[in-house]
Design goal:
By secondary structure, the chain is of the alpha/beta class. It is built from 9 helices and 20 strands. The protein has 4 domains: 46-112, no CATH class; 119-222, Immunoglobulins (Immunoglobulin-like), CATH 2.60.40; 241-289, no CATH class; 292-444, Rossmann fold (3-Layer(aba) Sandwich), CATH 3.40.50.410. Helices cover 30% and strands 28% of the residues. Strands 16-15-14-17-18-20-19 form a 7-stranded mixed β-sheet, sandwiched between helices. Strands 5-4-8-9 form a 4-stranded antiparallel β-sheet, with no helix packed on it. The longest helix has 39 residues, at 28-66.
Length: 447
């Protein structure tokens, strides 16, 4: 046996690259199948989009016909189709009779939806604004503008969460018919009346055709408010001319003189002192301000023990806000989801009618105040309205949003509790047990 050895210093034989195995190479069949799958998926997607567009076009075209079939009518139509199909497949004459009867009921109902009425309908609410618990009446007037007498019809009018139904008799040409109705106003809300719609259909409710005649009309049910004394005697007194610790170059409260700096207005130069010292000296002032009040209500449902307690908090907010507007103090008012209009007392009360409690998604009180203060000057007085279950720590956290020049007052609605005024940190906390006690509490509060 011969052993071969490499000579010292001889070059090593070059290594050959590994030959790829046939299994590692992509199969032509797999590539073809993948391409076919992609083509089928693209075709299916394009075909589905075309089918959806076609279906939408068909639905729009048939809407005048299918729109008059009520849910009960669709159920009867489906029952008729199933009964006739089973009768065909099973040979049962009884099912054929049932299917034919259901289909005949639909056909008999068709003539009831034909006919056209020419009405002019008016909705009047008197008054348009009431306080919760006061009475409000509505008036529905139907004018026949056709050249002939109208046929009897039925008119439906949604009022809030309810539905009022009126039977309109035959009205002569050019005549009118009037209906009166009461509007429930037990609780604060914005009640929408309308749109009024005439309804034609059969007695079984299989087919139903509606024609709308009016636009919705709003009735504002304002919260109950307490009459407060003018702010000069209470917590929202006018702070006109109150001096702050901020130093400015333009105001009326003189503070000191300082050396002139480039950019200072020449009107602030104190020429007598400048002549005496040999250098230009300018006046400095302590900034004065007029009051800016920020009124905020936390509307998280978790902060209130009941719906009545939430309504008490809204009434506190509205009572304070209305008096501040009457005193011509600058005011900004907001809740978690709503920035209220403070142009007039009526505008504010209209917006308070829209306040609703939030079951979820409410921000912490500190974040609520910070968001509400973004579009207004730094307030001199911040009033936060909340419920009895709101943690006091959330109200204390509000103190960190502004500086020491801002007074923080918290009004906590606690229905049935003894009214009191306490101090928590730098804030004044006013517990309101009933709305009747609010005027007395406001007189006692001093920011």
């Amino acid at each position: 046996m011969t052993l071969e050895t490499e000579a010292p210093g001889a070059p090593a034989p070059a290594s050959r690259p590994p030959t790829p195995s046939p299994a590692a190479a992509p199969s032509q069949a797999r590539l073809a199948l993948r391409s076919v799958r992609r083509s089928i998926a693209a075709s299916a997607g394009s075909g589905g989009a075309r089918l959806r567009r076609a279906g939408a076009a068909v639905a729009a075209f048939t809407a005048p016909v299918t729109g008059v079939i009520s849910p009960v009518g669709w159920l009867v139509l489906a029952g008729s189709a199933v009964a006739l199909a089973l009768a065909w497949g099973l040979g049962w004459i009884e099912l054929a009779f049932v299917g034919a009867t259901l289909l005949a009921a639909l056909l008999v109902a068709v003539p009831f939806v034909f006919g056209r009425m020419r009405y002019r309908v008016e909705i009047e609410l008197q008054p348009r604004r009431v306080v919760a618990g006061e009475r409000a009446l509505g008036r529905l007037v139907v004018h026949n503008v056709a050249d002939a007498a109208s046929v009897p019809s039925q008119l439906e009018l949604p009022v809030g969460r309810g539905l009022a139904e009126f039977v309109i008799p035959s009205i002569p040409a050019g005549g009118e018919h009037e209906e009166l109705f009461a509007v429930p106003t037990q609780r604060r809300a914005v009640i929408v009346a309308g749109p009024a719609a005439s309804v034609r259909g059969d007695q079984l409710g299989l087919l139903r055709r509606e024609v709308r005649w009016t636009e919705p009309v709003e009735l504002f049910v304002h919260p109950v408010t307490a009459r407060l004394r003018p702010s000069a005697a209470g917590l929202v007194r006018d702070l006109e001319g109150e001096v702050t610790k901020t130093i400015t170059n333009n105001d009326i409260s003189f503070h000191a003189l300082r050396a002139y700096e480039p950019g200072d207005a020449l009107r602030n130069v104190h020429w007598r002192t400048s002549a005496r010292t040999g250098q230009l000296m300018v006046r400095q002032y302590e900034e004065t301000r007029r009051s800016q009040l920020l009124l905020v209500q936390a509307t998280s449902a978790a902060h209130y023990a009941s719906d009545d307690e939430f309504e008490l908090a809204v009434s506190v907010l509205a009572s304070i806000g209305v008096q501040v507007i009457r005193d011509a103090t600058r005011l900004a008012t907001a809740t978690d989801r709503l920035r209220l209009n403070t142009a007039t007392p009526t505008a504010l009360l209209d917006d308070t009618s829209r306040i609703e409690s939030l079951a979820q998604g409410a921000a912490p009180v500190r974040d609520l105040v910070r968001e509400a203060a973004k579009r207004v000057p730094v307030p001199s007085v911040l009033i936060v309205v909340g419920g009895s279950r709101a943690p006091l720590a959330e109200f204390r956290a509000v103190e960190t949003v502004f500086g020491s020049d801002t007074q923080v007052i918290v009004f906590r609605a606690e229905l049935g509790a003894a009214s009191r005024i306490t101090r928590v940190g730098e804030s004044t906390v006013v517990t309101v047990g009933s709305l009747d006690e609010l005027p007395r509490l406001v007189r006692r509060v001093r920011p």
